[in-house]
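We read letters as residues; the integers encode the fold. Take this protein.
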Amino acid sequence: MQNPAEDLSNAASGHKANLSNPHTSEASKTQSKEVLGSMPHQPYYGMEDQNISKNPNQVAGGLKA
């Protein structure tokens, strides 16, 4: 199952990494700057919009630790 917000966040991470990588070309960095400039500025923090219930056995196991 794909999540468009997560895909966008991963793409932004890749472009940010490209900008800080000294081994990439200036043309590549320019392209990454353009892409990042056109992206929406809403960060994705994970599964905040999904309703996930916790497994009671895993919770109990975590409390023992």
Notes: DSSP finds three helices and no strands in the chain. The CA atoms of residues 57 and 63 lie 10 Å apart.
